[in-house]
Amino acid sequence: MSGVETYLDEHFGAALEDLKAFCRIPSVSTDPAHADGITKAAAFVAERLARAGFTNVEQLATGGHPAVFGEIITDPKLPTFLVYGHYDVQPPDPFDKWKTPPFEPDERDGRLYARGVSDDKGPLLIPILVAEAYVRAEGRLPVNLKVLIEGEEESGSPHFEGTLQTYRDRLGCDLVISADGAMWRPDRPSMTVASRGLVAFEVTVTGASKDLHSGRHGGSAPNPISALSKLIASLHGEDGRVAIEGYLDGTSPPDARIIAAIEAADFDANAYYREIGSPKPDPIETGRELLIRQWLEPTLEFNGISGGYQGKGTKTVIPTTASVKITCRLIVGQKPDHVVDVVTRHLEARLPAGFALDVHRHGPGSEAFFIDPDLPALKVAEEVLGELLGQPPLRVAMGATIPIGASFRKHLGTEAFFFSFSTSDEDYHAPNEFFRLANFRLGLTAWAKLLRRLAEAM
Amino acid sequence: MSGVETYLDEHFGAALEDLKAFCRIPSVSTDPAHADGITKAAAFVAERLARAGFTNVEQLATGGHPAVFGEIITDPKLPTFLVYGHYDVQPPDPFDKWKTPPFEPDERDGRLYARGVSDDKGPLLIPILVAEAYVRAEGRLPVNLKVLIEGEEESGSPHFEGTLQTYRDRLGCDLVISADGAMWRPDRPSMTVASRGLVAFEVTVTGASKDLHSGRHGGSAPNPISALSKLIASLHGEDGRVAIEGYLDGTSPPDARIIAAIEAADFDANAYYREIGSPKPDPIETGRELLIRQWLEPTLEFNGISGGYQGKGTKTVIPTTASVKITCRLIVGQKPDHVVDVVTRHLEARLPAGFALDVHRHGPGSEAFFIDPDLPALKVAEEVLGELLGQPPLRVAMGATIPIGASFRKHLGTEAFFFSFSTSDEDYHAPNEFFRLANFRLGLTAWAKLLRRLAEAM
Question: With an 8 Å Cβ cutoff, are B229 and A310 in contact?
Answer without folding.
Answer: no
